[in-house]
Amino acid sequence: MLQLELKRAFRNYRFAFVTIVNFIFALIALFYESKTELFMQFEKYKQSEIFNLYISKTKDIDSVMYVWPGALLSFTFNVVLYILPLLCVFPFALSYSKDIKTNYIDKILVKTSKKKYYLSKFIAVFISSGIVGIQFLLFSFIISALFFPIDTVFPTGRYLISNVSVLSNLFYEHTWLYLLIYFVYEFLFWGILSVICLGISCIENNIFMIAIAPFVLYFFINSLTLWILGKWEFSPKEIASLPNLRINTVPLLLCFWLICLLITIPYWVRCFKKDKILED
């Protein structure tokens, strides 16, 4: 059952569409923002007499991290963080509601148990949404690595990672390990946010309302923390990026994830309900 749900999650035009969108954003971030700022600057200093001195003072210019949007104050990355709540749910998070409306769920439950279907659906939504959530960072990193190697990263004001960021020392001492944790974190964040569509599908039939539910929750808490509390570092948009996650915001992150999981309770109630669910 899980294999079938995963196949449905990834072999559809919606997943292909969001993949292309993320790839385009990655190209824009690297060949517009980074190229304008770095490549022209690099060529300028390469031809100057103080090139060697310049390189000695900015050794990280040869590092992929110097151009990777995930480690920088990138405008494009900020835009992506605004639209990811919508992109992540588009491929498969709405499939449970569609299964009910098309009576697919009644047909599939003849062939498998209800628990297997619901658990497989949850896992498939979580995985597909999580992968969409890391696509921009992954694509931009791969493209960046075509031009710059991963080398020792030196502290500089250019990076988004600061001394108050979680695992900041790891970024400079073990960059590969930090990257792995970064991708896992983003995968978890967007996967957990997107599964709330399953819970909303149990109490709402309107597909549009279900689709924007993660977006509404994301920006409601974002507005609450920014405009009422005046704490930008507490907003979901900030903690959605690992470099912006601080030690004092970790409890807020866990609370945010808990809220998302609590919203899925109606889904699990249906899963463990003994009588068969009939939908008109």
From TrEMBL:
On whether 4Fe-4S is a keyword of this UniProt record, the answer is: no
The domain of life for this entry's organism is: Bacteria
Q: What is the lineage of its organism?
A: Bacteria, Bacillati, Bacillota, Clostridia, Lachnospirales
- Indicate the transmembrane segments per the record: 12-32, 75-96, 117-150, 176-200, 207-229, 249-269
Keyword Membrane listed: yes
Alphabetically sorted, this entry's keywords are: Membrane, Transmembrane, Transmembrane helix
Name listed for the protein in its UniProt record: ABC-2 family transporter protein
Coiled-coil stretches, from where to where?
A: none
Q: Which organism is it from?
A: Lachnospira multipara
